Amino acid sequence: MKYSILFKNEYELNKNMPSFFVNINADQVVDAILRNDEDKVNKDIFYTPLKSIDDIKYRQDVFKDLDNRDVYVEFNSTISRLKKIYDSFKANEYEANTSWAGKRTLLKQIDAYIKAINRFRDFLDKTDLVKSEGLRNFGIYLKEFTNKNEYKELERNLETVKNVIKGMRYTLVFNGCDIYVSKYEDDKDFTPFISDALKGFDWDSKREFNYSVNEMVSSRLIDHNVLNALSKIYKEEFKALKAFCHLYSAFYDLDLYRIVLEAKFYTSIHFYLEKLESTGLVFCYPEFTDKFDEESVDSFDLALAYRLMNRGDKIVTNSYSLNGDERAIILSGPNQGGKTTFARQLGELHYFSLLGMKVPGSYAKLHLIDSLYTIFKTEEAMESLNGKLQSELVMVHDLINKATKDSFLIFNEIFASTTSLDGYELTKKLIERVKEIGCMCLFITFIDELSTISDITVAMRSNVSKENPMIRTYKITKEESNGKAYANAISLKYHLAYDEIRRRIK
């Protein structure tokens, strides 16, 4: 297996976005992470969850190393530089083959390439700040890479041609629009005279001097013509430059470039989380357990947090736990009370933990899931000739057939198109099937009675203000729901409370 900074074991990247991404707003999270990555080169990595705790820890440990500012600065600087060098190299390919200016640029690119690689190799070799297997192996990879004969030969030939070019000295004489190029012949040094003439100027002044350049004059054209003239004066030197550029016209190692693109996964996420953390939000590395005892403290919906951050607003955090035989969360509460946000929070929490990322909250202990399945009430195929209920039943049937004991299922107000009694019976049968499979699930429903129909269910509810039931707190708590406060809130909102009706009919 080739070295990978992302994968400890072989993985085949998923090219397609998972079906649940839009439901839990994971697509918005990924877009925000990659906002500064114009090529979107890492998107398929976000579609490829890791399958083992060992693989996740491999990636988590790299992130932990990068939490050290000194390590991150070196890492980010190297990756950014190598990416820019590659982009510049690809953009300059034609010029490198057709002009002296392009060849000079290629020489600079190769010089920067070697310096960036050697600098980071030496950093990884000497630092005691790097603990992760991923970054230690990167150091080994770079040592082996720079010990190859081809690389050493590139270094030697670069130094040779640089020394040859350094020996070229020439004079430019400007006469109006004409420029005369000639070999330097130990002409008189005018530096002392110029320095003496400029003594009266205040060089420490912060005054800005603005000037305009005649846009009719192309600096690239001047550069091109000066180099062409020099190539006629220093024939042997330019011959050496041409031979070097011909030999190394494809100097950039594509395997190294693959690693650079992988590494951008870390830097993009680090930059994204750093912005959220700067607002006071807390993130943690989740622990994983083989049991179903789960706990998350002060977590939140990443997509919502990012939107609120841009508006300068704060997000409400929520906690939850599953213990013993508890597998199914029955979440009820008023409309607009944060239930769907909580569902997205749990979906994001479990999925992004599989990418090795830090997750929202001060603490998280999670069961390692093998898949995430969601059905939200907004999912309805309008072009289908079937009714909404039948469409939902078909989706539930397909989902249940795919689920395993390690799956996590999210049902957001399904069966709402039928009667309460039918919805109760259908959901009851679905919970019985979930119990048989042994997986975790979250049901968002207005049918409170569902929370007591099985030993695997646990009741949670979204709360309203005690002083004013019409005000949502967006806090989700682990307690039975009775629905009374919500009915009162609705009646008050529409002026249907008992006292108001009595006043109006008197």
Rounded mean pLDDT is 88
| Helix-strand makeup class | alpha/beta
Number of strands: 14
The count of helical stretches stands at 18
CATH class category name of the largest domain: Alpha Beta
CATH architecture label of the largest domain: 3-Layer(aba) Sandwich
Number of domains: 2
Model regions low in confidence, pLDDT < 50 over at least 5 residues: 379-383
**What fraction, in percent, of the residue positions are helical?**
40-55%
Main sheet record: 6 strands, mixed
Shape: elongated
How far apart the termini lie comes to 84 Å
Oligomer: single chain
Main sheet: strand order = 10-11-12-7-13-14
Beta fraction of the residues?
5-15%
Q: Please name the fourth-level CATH homologous superfamily of the largest domain.
A: P-loop containing nucleotide triphosphate hydrolases
Q: For the CA atoms, what is the radius of gyration?
A: 32 Å
CATH topology of the largest domain: Rossmann fold
In short:
With 506 residues, this protein is of the alpha/beta class. The chain folds into 2 domains: 50-166 and 250-264, no CATH class; 282-505, P-loop containing nucleotide triphosphate hydrolases (Rossmann fold, 3-Layer(aba) Sandwich), CATH 3.40.50.300. It has 18 helices and 14 strands.
